[in-house]
Amino acid sequence: MRRVLTALVVVGLAGFVGGYVPPRTHASAAAPYLFDEEFNGTALDLATWQPNWLGSNNAAITKPVNTQEGSCYDPKQVSVSGGALHLSAVARSCLGWPYASGLVNTRQHFTFRYGYIEARVWLPGGNSTLNWPAVWANGTGKWPKTGEIDVVEGLAGKDCYHFHSKHGASGGCSAVRPAAGWHTFAADWRAKKITFYYDGVEVGAVSKGLTHAKMYLVLNLGVSSSISPPITAPATMLVDYIRVSR
Question: Which of 41, 151, 168, 175 is deepest in the core (most CB within 10 A)?
Answer without folding.
Answer: 151
